[in-house]
UniProtKB/TrEMBL annotation:
It comes from Megasphaera cerevisiae DSM 20462. Residues 125-254 form the PurE domain. One of its GO terms (biological process) is 'de novo' IMP biosynthetic process. This is 1-(5-phosphoribosyl)-5-amino-4-imidazole-carboxylate carboxylase. SUPFAM superfamilies: N5-CAIR mutase (phosphoribosylaminoimidazole carboxylase, PurE). PANTHER family: PHOSPHORIBOSYLAMINOIMIDAZOLE CARBOXYLASE-RELATED, SLL1489 PROTEIN. It holds the Pfam family AIRC. Transmembrane segments: none annotated. GO terms for molecular function: hydrolase activity. The lineage of its organism: Bacteria, Bacillati, Bacillota, Negativicutes, Veillonellales.
Length: 255
């Protein structure tokens, strides 16, 4: 299916508004790669991201229409083996699936992705993804899948929060073997400090918006992690599993 047919089909199915379809059609004839940028009219795709940063541009789908997300991801999936769209709806996946048999969707993390090259880039060096509770798993899966698709070996250690410290201590050997630990926690966010006090490797803390009212949608966990007394703990933004997975992968790839 060529690009014009794709645009018309998306408009017919409601994925693009009339104005978006008109804009896309106007730019289709002039679509080009100038300075390694693909001009879609509503988006300028950076085609040098992989060469500069080691992985193609990742698409943040929240706030985009289904049609916009599909067109950007289609362009990337035609060019690269491994592609990620974060905070995507299942509808984006369903629109991509007929043209991209390898595309997958993960309901927990809300990630749509193409993962056809599974060659490990960073050998046997492990990234451990650890959660305080089961409710933190969606953010943890965003981190874990991101790291895996970017060529890392990932170990998941879930539901080992400080309310039952023996659960964490049972996994001490695995945690200490990891080259990088991602710790995902809401509520008071204490788990990152505890893990930071057990290992001699980097800890990336991910505060989540899980918790009751005084959690302030993750702000209390964020501040607790920023104020950690354990050295070697860095912190990403609230619910930013993707950012943690990406940073862990960069650290894991360093020699």
């Amino acid at each position: 299916m060529n690009e014009i047919s794709t645009i018309l089909q998306q408009y017919k199915e409601g994925g693009l508004s009339l104005q978006e379809a008109e804009t896309a059609l106007k730019h289709e004839a002039a679509q080009h790669e100038t300075g390694r940028i693909m001009d879609l009219g509503f988006a300028q795709i950076d085609l040098e991201r992989k060469e500069r940063c080691g992985f193609p541009e990742v698409v943040y789908c929240a706030g985009k229409t289904v049609g916009q997300s599909v067109r950007i991801l289609s362009a990337l999936m035609n060019k690269y083996t491994n592609v990620i769209g974060t905070r995507a709806s299942r509808e984006v996946y369903e629109k991509l699936a007929p043209d991209f048999p390898a595309v997958q969707y993960d309901d927990l993390s809300r990630m749509v992705y193409q993962f056809t090259d599974k060659t490990p880039i960073n050998g046997d060096r492990i990234i451990a993804v650890i959660t305080a509770g089961t409710s933190d798993i969606p953010i943890a899966e965003e981190a874990a899948l991101t790291a895996e698709i970017m060529g890392n070996k990932v170990q998941r250690i879930y539901d080992v929060g400080v309310a039952g410290l023996h659960r964490l201590l049972a996994h001490c050997e695995e945690i200490r073997k990891a080259n990088v630990n991602i710790v995902v926690a809401g509520m008071e966010g204490a788990l990152a400090s505890v893990v930071g006090g057990l290992v001699d490797k980097p800890v990336i803390a991910v505060p989540t918006s899980i918790g009751y009212g005084a959690n302030f949608h993750g702000l209390s966990a964020l501040l607790a992690m920023l104020n950690s007394c354990a050295s070697g703990v860095s912190v990403v933004n609230i619910d930013n599993g993707f950012g943690a997975g990406r940073m862990a992968g960069i650290i894991n790839g360093m020699r």
